[in-house]
Write a structure and sequence with these properties.
DNA-binding, elongated, alpha/beta, homodimer, two-stranded antiparallel sheet
DNA sequence: CTCTCATTATCATTTCTTCTAATACTACTC
DNA sequence: GAGTAGTATTAGAAGAAATGATAATGAGAG
């Protein structure tokens, strides 16, 4: 029997839907239906009760599902072991990332990975943060790239970057040509903020409060892209990770200014499901991500209009390693420090 | 990837031969070659070193083989569990039996099994005793039916029958019409014996010696069929399990006479590989075998020429159950007793 | 070293399976 | 009870796997 059918069944069972399962396996709904039908015929038993609408597993289906899940997992492990012997890194690597990881940097990591391990099949998807966690938890993705990574429950996180944040302003803004600003300069400015429930918003508020600065929040958005668009049309200014405005700075639609008197950073981490053996290929991709910031700068380093240190947007992004068991303290405002972080119930931006 | 390919690879690996493995999987040698080739292509690694003859597994192949063996085993277990939930007994049951188990009786068990469990697929092969053990040990058979079952090492045995032995003579022999004979009557008779290395020979010798009887051994054979043929042509008489001469008695080519003063029995047992989870279907077949002697007599009970108890050849064959840990004592000369037996290094006939 | 035998690889062909698209069916929802 | 979303069921197309025949290869004998 095709192992494929078993995979399809598992996906169908997990999603409680033939169509969803089929989609996950990149086959037609018809195929999924037939595949499960085959298994049922072979076993002489119904695995799925279709008379309920979201479908339900029969007791037999439940047992089969759990058994097969484990088997598939083991099978992948065996295949991975075999390939490890031959120094071959292969197999799928499924990564789900938030939109704002910094496309440029990801691009380099992806290229490097595909160069080093041509037999591996990397799939990189950009999703809403909640979907990232969902995919990781439901085994739809091997890794998730998120900001303010959760750590706990079924999620395990690895520190990856401390993205330094800068003040982003329209090119015509008075600050645009300054080398740097102090937080105090923001007093009374029109400000585009993140929505309240996001950790990044609370972090920014904390810094502003400590500097006794009151900004005028004119808009709140839950994602960086929209904030950038708002800045472009002159609604105000915002504090954003520098790596997320790289593109706009290089084509002149936005400008970024360092904040001199505070090191505001957005931690970005790699999350994966706990208790799940990572394949060699996945491990290699993590390695590349972690070493990414030490790599040579991109082919044609774009120079933002404001003068800045030559290593550009990479400043402050540094290697990190597997977290032993994080503590929720915020890292001191210095770069190059590996600190565990475990924010409870934090939303991320 | 077809799980089939993995099975083929495992069979090839185990037998260290493509052709043998192909045969075991009932496919052409060409297919086996291609199947393994597919796996190798998928893994990007050679699994088998074909530059040696007999072929050798590469280190990767070794790992893959062992991993897959376990996986296949587990997969079968899962399938079995699922079917158990639906009260379905299915899957293959591969039985290897010695020629002389008694075809008539096997026939009934087989029919009963196929009637009760139509979804199971029973394959019954008759082989030389050594091959029976070999097949069981190499996982080519789930069960072996042998006389004087070994117990120990990788073999585990279940007592099954105590086949009563009778004196078999040509129809024209003076004993042929007697109700019974005493061992003493055999003094000086021309005797067809088993070869020396067989346990059954030693057992017979023991009985004869105790009765202080000296027979004239004119031939020695290592299998019952040949002995019967020798008796038919008048070379002598022999002590054989009654159930193995059923056919010849009913068509008049041989005659059987009870031995009144000794209960000579040949124990027949069911052997299987230790540490191997038996599928439900296999277990059910064992149950049927064990209960076989209590079943109603065959459709048209053939009556041997000599008058005898109405339940015919079944006398003395009785239920037995799983051996706890046998002791090598011979059972007392009564019927209906379950006794464990563990002859060391015994050959079987 | 060469020949032979046994085994395995390769190829072209046939057979079988599995996929998809379109459509019919079914269970929930309002 | 009609609408909607999901699932089953077809037939035909695309694809995979099995086969038989034949070429290539390794082991062992002379």
């Amino acid at each position: 029997m095709h192992l494929r059918f078993v995979e399809i069944f598992c996906d169908v069972a997990q999603r409680r839907s033939f169509s969803k399962g089929a989609q996950a396996q990149q086959v037609s709904q018809s195929s999924a239906s037939q595949a499960v039908g085959m298994l049922e015929k072979r076993l002489g038993t119904r695995l799925i009760d279709r008379s309920k609408r979201p479908l339900e597993l029969t007791p037999a289906g439940q047992v089969y599902f759990e058994g097969c899940r484990e088997l598939l997992e083991r099978f992948r492990t065996v295949e991975d072991q075999v390939q490890a012997i031959a120094d071959r890194v292969a197999g799928p690597v499924r990564v789900a990332a938030i939109y704002s990881v910094g496309l440029m940097q990801m691009e380099r990591s992806v290229q490097r990975f595909e160069e080093l391990y041509p037999d591996a099949k990397l799939r990189l998807e950009y999703l809403h943060p909640d979907r990232v966690y969902q995919q990781v938890l439901e085994d739809d993705a091997d890794l998730g790239l998120v900001s303010y990574p959760r750590h706990g429950g079924d999620i395990e996180s690895i520190d990856w970057q401390e993205q330094p944040m800068v003040l982003v302003v329209p090119p015509a803004h008075p600050f645009a040509d300054r080398r740097s600003i102090a937080l105090a300069d923001l007093n009374g400015e029109d400000f585009i903020g993140f929505t309240q429930e996001l950790t990044i918003r609370r972090e920014i508020d904390r810094h502003l409060k400590r500097a006794r600065v009151a900004v005028h929040v004119v808009h709140e958005f839950d994602n960086i892209e929209t904030i950038k668009r708002a800045i472009e049309i002159g609604s105000g200014v915002a504090l954003l990770p520098r790596s997320t405005v790289w593109q706009e700075i290089s084509n002149g639609t936005l400008a970024a200014v360092d904040v001199s008197d505070a090191e505001i950073v957005r931690p970005v981490g790699i999350v994966h499901k706990r208790n799940k053996q990572l394949t060699t290929a996945v491990q290699k991709f993590i390695e590349i991500l972690l070493s990414g910031s030490t790599a040579q700068p991109p082919f044609t380093a774009p120079e933002p209009r404001a003068a800045r240190s030559p290593n550009g947007h990479q400043a402050g992004e540094n290697k990190a390693h597997q977290k032993t068991n994080g503590h929720s303290a915020r890292p001191p405002a210095t770069t190059g420090v590996d600190v565990a972080r475990k924010p409870k119930k934090s939303k991320r931006a």
